Every structure is written in structure tokens, then in C-alpha cells.
């Protein structure tokens, strides 16, 4: 907890072990859970995990009056994370590492290549390399140079 990380030592299906950084808010929520051992989630079988998840999901769907929540499964979260990470980084190898896959084909199955962006674009011009560097660090993409100006674009 003090390092703000979660370690997955023995993942399913022979995938790679990994460590995730987590927020202070998540750490405080996990600390609020009742503990019966040193491990955060000490289930004796995957059936217990599924049963508990279904119970919590059903309770949330009822409380929020949203029956669509009952269609969410564990793998829904993996697909969502893969899609969001790919959208954020455009780096399929990063997504592969995040999911712990050993084969890129598995990662591609999880990553939904959805267009989130609108067609609207921000544009910017840089007069020197320092300005260009700031635009690139802000997520802008270099387009071309014209009359001693460097042109950049970024989706809104």
C-alpha cells in the first residue's frame, strides 16, 4: 500500500506477472474493505469471486435503477482498459504489456479500434524548436513546414 502499487504474481492462462500503479483514492477504498488475511482478495476459488461480483453488480443495478449493469462481466473491464490504453497511447505493444499478454494476437482481440475523436482539430504554429517541442509534449502532431513555420495538429 505504501508504494501505491498492486502486484499480480500468478496471473491466469500463463500470462506475464505485472505491477500496476494505483491512486491514493483507490488505496483508501481498498483499505476500507474488511480484511480476513494479509492478501487483499483471498478467495479460495474463482467461483467465490464470480458469485461475489454478481451479487455486487446486481445490488448496484438495483440501486442505480440501471439493468444494463447486469451485462457487465470481468472481461468487460479488460476490453475497456485495452481500448482506453490504445486510444490514449496508440501503442499496441504498451497495451500488450499492460494486459500481460505474451502474444500480440491476444491483445488485438481485446483492443477495440473505435474512433473516439471528432473531426474537429486544433492547429498550432511554431517559430522555433523550443515551441515545437512544447507542442509535441502537449500531444500535437507535426504536419509540415511552411515559410519558416512548423505546423502542428491535434484532435479536440
Q: What Rg is obtained from the alpha carbons, in whole angstroms? A: 21 Å
Task: Quickly count the helices.
Answer: 6
What oligomeric assembly is this protein in?
A: single chain
Taken from the alpha-carbon principal axes, the silhouette is: elongated
Helix fraction? 40-55%
Strand arrangement within the widest β-sheet reads 3-5-4
The chain-level structural class is alpha+beta
Order of helices and strands: EEHHHHHEHEE
Record field, number of beta strands: 5
Strand percent estimate: 15-25%
The end-to-end distance, rounded to whole angstroms, is: 37 Å
Mean pLDDT across the residues is 81
Largest sheet: 3 strands, antiparallel
**Poorly predicted ranges:** none
What does this structure look like?
It is a single chain. With 156 residues, the protein is α+β, with helices and mostly antiparallel strands. Among the domains are: 73-116; 121-155, no CATH class. Helix content is 44%, strand content 17%. The chain has six helices and five strands, in the order ββαααααβαββ. It has helices spanning 24-32, 46-64, 74-89, 92-99, 104-110, 129-137, and strands at 5-8, 18-21, 121-126, 141-146, 149-155. Strands 3-5-4 form a three-stranded antiparallel β-sheet, covered by helices on one side. A hairpin with a 2-residue loop joins strand 4 (141-146) and strand 5. It is elongated, with a radius of gyration of 21 Å. The mean pLDDT is 81.
Amino acid at each position: 500500500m505504501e508504494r501505491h502499487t498492486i502486484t499480480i504474481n500468478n496471473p491466469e492462462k500463463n500470462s506475464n506477472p505485472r505491477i500496476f500503479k494505483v491512486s491514493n483514492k483507490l488505496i483508501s477504498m481498498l483499505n476500507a474493505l474488511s480484511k480476513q488475511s494479509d492478501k487483499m482478495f483471498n478467495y479460495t476459488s474463482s467461483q467465490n469471486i464470480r458469485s461475489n461480483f454478481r451479487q455486487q453488480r446486481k445490488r448496484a443495478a438495483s440501486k442505480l435503477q440501471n439493468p444494463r449493469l447486469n451485462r457487465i462481466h470481468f472481461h468487460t473491464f479488460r476490453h475497456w482498459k485495452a481500448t482506453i490504453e490504445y486510444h490514449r497511447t496508440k501503442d499496441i505493444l504498451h497495451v500488450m504489456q499492460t494486459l500481460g499478454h505474451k502474444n500480440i494476437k491476444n491483445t488485438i482481440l481485446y483492443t477495440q479500434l473505435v474512433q473516439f475523436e471528432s473531426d474537429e482539430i486544433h492547429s498550432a504554429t511554431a517559430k522555433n524548436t523550443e515551441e515545437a517541442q512544447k507542442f509535441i509534449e502537449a500531444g500535437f502532431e507535426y504536419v509540415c513546414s511552411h515559410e519558416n513555420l512548423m505546423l502542428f495538429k491535434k484532435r479536440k
